[in-house]
Automatic annotation (TrEMBL):
SUPFAM superfamilies: alpha/beta-Hydrolases
Domain of life assignment: Eukaryota
Record InterPro entries: AB_hydrolase_fold (IPR029058), Dienelactn_hydro (IPR002925)
Gene3D superfamilies recorded: alpha/beta hydrolase
Domain named Dienelactone hydrolase: residues: 42-269
Organism expressing this protein natively: Candolleomyces eurysporus
Record's protein name: Dienelactone hydrolase domain-containing protein
An example Gene Ontology molecular-function term: hydrolase activity
Length: 275
C-alpha cells in the first residue's frame, strides 16, 4: 500500500446519510442529538471541529452521529467557516485519472475561489466564532461541561481551545501544526485533559513535533500544571485518516474506527462520567 501524502484537496467521502439536522438558531451548526433526549437530559455535550472541508462535507456529521449514539449526549458541529469551507474536496477517483500537471492546475483552480474563505477562516476569526458559539450553547442549552474533538485544521483549533477554559477536555486528531513554533507555545498553555490521535506519516504533524508535544505534557508530571493525556499513533496511516480515510484500504478504514473508539473512550472518561 502506498503511503504517499494526500493533498489538502483530496479525500474520501464516508458512506451513509447524516441523521441530525442544521440548527438555524445556533449559527447553523449541525446537531447530532442525544438518542435518549426524550427520556433523560444530559448537561454534557461535545463539539466537533472540522478540517478545512468544513460543514458542507458529510463526514463530520456522520462522525458526530456515531459519537452521539455512543456517548448518549448531544454532539454539535459548528459552522465556524461561516457558511463557507476553506477548500473543496476533490474525489480521489477523479485525481487518479489525472496527470501531475493536471493536478497542479486543478489545485490552483480550487484555491483561487477560496482565497476569501482562507482569510475569513484565520485562527483569530475562527476562535472568536467558537467562543461565541460555546457561550450560546451554555446559555441556551444549559450544558455544564463541554468536550471538543478536532481534525486537522480543527485539531489545531482544539489545541487553542484547550487553553481557554471554554472546554473541559479535548481530543486532537492529526492537527495541522506544520512547525513547532508558535505551536509548542499553544501546547504549553493546554489546561484540560487531552487525547492525541496521530498518523504514522504526517507532513502537518511530524513525528518530531509529536514527540515535542508529548515531552511538554509529560514534563509537567508532579506539578500543579499536570493534565491527563495520551498519544496514540496509528501505523500505516497518513494525515486525514481519522475523518476521510481511503476506503479502498481496510487498514485505513479500521484505523479510522479505532480513532473514533479512542475519541469516545476519552470522552467517557473525562466528560460523561466526570461529576
Amino acid at each position: 500500500m502506498s503511503l504517499s501524502f494526500p493533498g489538502w484537496d483530496e479525500g474520501y467521502i464516508l458512506p451513509d446519510k447524516p441523521k441530525g439536522s442544521i440548527q438555524i438558531g445556533f449559527s447553523s451548526a449541525y446537531l447530532a442529538p442525544n438518542p435518549d433526549a426524550e427520556t433523560t437530559t444530559s448537561d454534557r455535550a461535545v463539539i466537533l471541529l472540522t478540517d478545512d472541508f468544513g460543514l458542507p462535507l458529510k463526514n463530520p456529521k456522520l462522525i458526530a452521529d456515531a459519537l452521539a449514539e455512543r456517548l448518549r449526549c448531544d454532539v454539535w458541529v459548528p459552522d465556524y467557516f461561516n457558511g463557507l469551507n476553506a477548500i473543496d474536496l476533490v474525489p480521489q477517483r477523479v485525481l487518479d485519472q489525472m496527470t501531475t500537471w493536471d493536478k497542479w492546475r486543478l489545485k490552483w483552480k480550487t484555491i483561487l475561489p477560496f482565497i476569501g474563505a482562507f482569510w475569513d477562516s484565520s485562527p483569530s476569526v475562527v476562535d472568536k466564532r467558537l467562543a461565541s458559539f460555546i457561550a450560546l450553547l451554555k446559555e441556551k442549552r444549559g450544558y455544564k461541561k463541554i468536550g471538543a474533538v478536532g481534525y486537522s485544521y480543527g485539531g489545531a483549533a482544539c489545541i487553542r481551545l484547550a487553553s481557554t477554559g471554554l472546554i473541559d477536555c479535548a481530543v486532537i486528531c492529526h492537527p495541522n501544526l506544520p512547525s513547532p513554533s508558535p505551536s509548542l507555545a499553544q501546547v504549553r498553555a493546554i489546561c484540560v485533559p487531552v487525547s492525541w490521535v496521530c498518523a504514522e506519516m504526517d507532513h502537518f504533524f511530524s513525528n518530531s513535533i509529536q514527540h515535542q508535544c508529548k515531552a511538554e505534557l509529560a514534563g509537567r508530571k508532579g506539578t500543579d500544571r499536570f493534565v491527563d493525556f495520551e498519544f496514540n499513533e496509528y501505523k500505516g496511516t497518513v494525515h486525514g485518516f481519522a475523518c476521510r480515510p481511503n476506503l479502498e484500504y481496510p487498514l485505513l478504514v479500521e484505523s479510522c474506527k479505532y480513532a473514533l473508539d479512542q475519541t469516545a473512550s476519552w470522552f467517557e472518561k473525562t466528560l460523561v462520567s466526570e461529576s
